[in-house]
Structure prediction request, 1264 residues.
Amino acid sequence: MSAPSLAISGLSKRFGGVVAVDAVELQLQSGELHALIGPNGAGKTTLVQLLSGAERVDAGSIHLDGRDITHVAMHQRAGLGLGRSYQISSVFAAFSVLDNLALAAQARARRRWGCWAPVAADAVLFAAARGTLDAIGLSARAETPAGALAHGERRQLELGLALASGASMLLLDEPMAGMAAAEAERMLALIASLRGKFTILLVEHDMDAVFRLADRITVLVYGRVIATGGAEDIRRHPDVRRAYLGEDQP
Amino acid sequence: MTLILFVEQCLNGVQLGLMLFLLAAGLTLVFGIMDMINLAHGSLYMIGAYLAATVIEATGSFLLGAGAAMIGTGLIGAALEVSLFRQLYRRSHLNQVLATFALILIANETVRMIWGAQPILLNMPEALAGPVEPVEGFRYPAYRLAVIAVGAAVALLLYVMVVHTRLGMRVRAGASDRDMANVMGVDTRRLFTLVFAIGAGLCALAGAMLGPILAVQVGMGENILILAFVVIVIGGIGSIRGALVGALLVGLIDTAGRAFLPGLLRHVFPPTIASEAGPALASILIYVLMASVLYFRPRGLFPARG
Amino acid sequence: MTSALHVSARPGFALAGAILLLVLPLGLLAVDQPFYIVLASRILVFALIASSLNLLIGYGGMISFGHAAFVGIGAYTVAGLMQAGIVSAWLAWPIAMLAGAVLALGIGWISLRTSGVYFIMITLAFAQMAYYAIISLKLLGGDDGLSLGGRSALLPGIDLKADLSFYYVALACFAASLAFLHRLINAELGRALQGVRDNETRMEALGFPTYRIKLAAFIIAGALAGLGGALLANLTGLVSPSLLHWTQSGALMIMVILGGAGRLLGGAIGAAVLLIIEEVLRDYTIHWQLGVGVVLLAIVLFAPSGLAGGLAGLRQRRQA
Amino acid sequence: MTRLIAAALIALPLALPAAAADKVKIGFMSTLSGPGAALGVDMRDGFNLVVKNAGGKLGGLAAEVAVVDDEQKPDTARQAVERFTKRDRVDVITGVVFSNVLLPVLPSILESGTIFISPNTGPEDYAGDKCHPRFFVASWQNEDVPGAMGQKVQDLGKKNVFLIAPNYPGGRETLNGFKRYYKGGYADEVYTKLGQLDYAAEIADIRAKKPDAVFFFLPGGMGINFIKQYASAGLAKDIPLYTPGYSADEDTIKAVGEQLVGVLNSSQWAHDLDNPANKKFVADFQKEYGRLPTMYASQSYDAALMLDAAIKAVQGKVEDKDALAKALRTAKFDSVRGKFRLNNNNYPVQDYYLREVVKDASGRITNRTVGKIFSDHGDAFASKCKMG
Prediction:
């Protein structure tokens, strides 16, 4: 096996007296779609926050492609190819959908300091943005302000931002949260299409989706990893059954 | 420096600090509970001082003047809260800053129209106009001592109110989590109006008591307002205890700077330079304190929220 | 246009504005009213300053309550240099911009680590520090301020003491600054800045160094405000600590909001409207500030997007 | 939008009437708000009294007096001066109370060719080599009045004096004037911020330093507060106060009362000076405004009289500023202070009196002239002035 794309070791985070993430060990192979599941309050979002750099790590380490990023600032992690989406859509409400994606494309091209040349005249950049626009199926909404999008569309844009920003590793925090069935299906297809092109850590509640999509699954309960493995292993894992179904161990 | 001088300057600092506290108390509650930046707080102080001056000149009674000013300004505050401020609570801070800045202009000109541009110079109440001699060889103006006593009493009263009464409990609940307080059935609308009115009344009390020491004039609220903001940022927005500590700190630093820095600087510079640089440096110290508190403990010394 | 964010200049509008501003003083001279040339210069200077603040408030979402500090340091730089015998505008004005930029770097370095209401307060605190620092400096006139011996020297043959030449220099500075701001907000940094205003966390997650982006905008605004201060010192012929007083910062914010935060011409329109209201009301009543207060309050309550925003809204409605 | 603004800018001046040649336009800029307001108000009233007595005229010309408030701020003054010189095109500007307001705007007034008559502050800057043919002082040089008091305190044999004044040119010059004639020792020399109203820290300092006299110069509301706080600290009985007349004049007496009784002060004028012009002035002023005039009112009244005489001398031709200036220089009028003439630097040469605040027979607290300190006194800088 090659060196893991993302390696998490002994990662811990506490808020006051509550241990939200407790000595988590996790490794993602390059190109893998790895699902992270667990009951409410298991610490999934906290883990994503720690990985993306939004929260400070108390203990443990995070390595991205062999590089220690435990204490690297959030924007620098993004620069190293770590992209994320948010559980609650976090887009640029005053920007049009296209401008949202253009901004992400600007991030990918690492262009920040230009003070003179108009970005709007940059055909290459906008071609990239339009590419993502087509990929996430929002071509018809290009000129709409993101704040005026429907919930499902905003989820699509949310993912689009992560895609366009040039990440190679995606942390997707419940991309289907609050979506209607048809929308969720489209999103699922979209994520499926990303498979193999990106290394993905997918946090999701929809078990059906998770078991269909994921190469491997990790189960987090009370901040601890109780199981990691393929879909079948997890389905049969006694600790997981107990956590989810309340089954007593014999 | 003699001990007497030191004690006297400390008392002066405490007196200034307690008056700042009266202003800061209302400001910090309004800021903490309603999340509202009210630049017009200083205007309430000015209005209170003018009301006090008018009643004192008409009746000759200082107590009557201070009382009438507190009630009158409290009512004005309540009316403002109901008519205007309610619409601003959910607005951005930028909008609040501008709307209340506009109120400053309106209040200044209205006062100028009613009372004229010349300052009103209040006299101290006759009984307190002289000095007292609490310790042999140490004389101190009776009026300033009275100001200290009233300030301390109000501080104590406020503390007891906030910490030990139902009203105070609601206020604290509101300061730490407004939505939760709402859910728990606290009638926040009435609570806000009440808190605002009390804050305005305290402003008026400060205005009335500082009237004879300073001057009742248009624009008197603007500089002291900024000091009050410094106080509440240092103390922690929403915290009465923080406001008291912050106010005393600012009062003492400001007085110490004015009293002792020129003397120290005079060893190096001629008097015109020393006496200009001294107070200015003391004023800078206050803002340095504020900036470092914001930098190292952004929530202030006594944060109201967790 | 594919990008809705892009602010395009309407050439006809810009040309008409330019011609008008160019012939305005000639018209005023024709009717023998040189005073209004001074007023127009004053408006141009404040338009420049307010536009620089608009970059922070309108485009960067940074509610800086201490912009007067940058204006003040620019003005004092020119006055101080003149006192030291350096009168060349080519030297003094860039140094004033540099001083504004350096002060902005220092203040921004610390202030930009805070956010929300704490940012408002800490910028206010720093501006007050600058205010008292100036008062304490006897070298720069302390509380009295400094009178300038004359105006800066620009080119042989151009005497800035003449109100007309000063007007055109102020116009040139304003136009250049506005053009620069126009390019800036459409360029990479400007769009990134607006992204930060809209959603800072997301910008960071996308890989933008948001702190440094804000700091860059802060420095640019500081430099432009420093230039504005340099012009202001030349216009009024005196600098005093009241230039840095917090109410000055408040007045600048008023201009931005009045005109329309986040609109290219917002600062300029706000400055013009506020100063003209002042000038007109002043002749009718000594209580002109009451009028300003009421207008301002009405705008905050009923037209929070400012005059430029209101006009744009009207235009859109007409087109729809 | 830009078009609108430009249109408004062009339209504005058209609405204003053009200047007529048959009147004299006077810009009266003074401090009418804040702690120094009482001074400006008295000066305005004194000036207006002359115009009113002459039926709205000065020197036979209809007088148009535009009164504006400088708010004691140089920036505000600067804009007001722009309006006076470039928009209203006044012939004469007068009224300024404070030197820190006057000094920054004086160059642009003089550059515009407008005449300035100072009814109050007489700065050192323009008394010596920078003296100017269009700058006149109708009051005194800043050192003169305190200088007289310095002489008196010297004569009283004081050895250890505490000095306090606001930190602005007028304040510094005032203490310099005192020090020019007082040769004893000093307990301290303190400068406060102009406009400061709470003197707790300084008074504590005085108590600790135990001087044998306090000389203070705190004009307007500042002085009123200082005296009250000084008395309430219980120092009034132990350490006597001395002051130039400005801080022991009728406005201060009205505000402070009893606590001022016995305070010695110096002045170039007093309301009990025995000359016909003064008797008429005091009576008219009291009748018109219902209060006793102050030094400020008398100076401003004299400034108006001086202008009146000069306009008469040039037979109303105020357009010729050189002639008007020359006429001002030699204007003959009955000054309320008796003997009065202008020195080669356009600053006064006059007598200086000692006054004492007393309670008179009717129980009224007021100033009484008790002696003369300087006779025919000119300032110390006139010799540096090159004007003939």
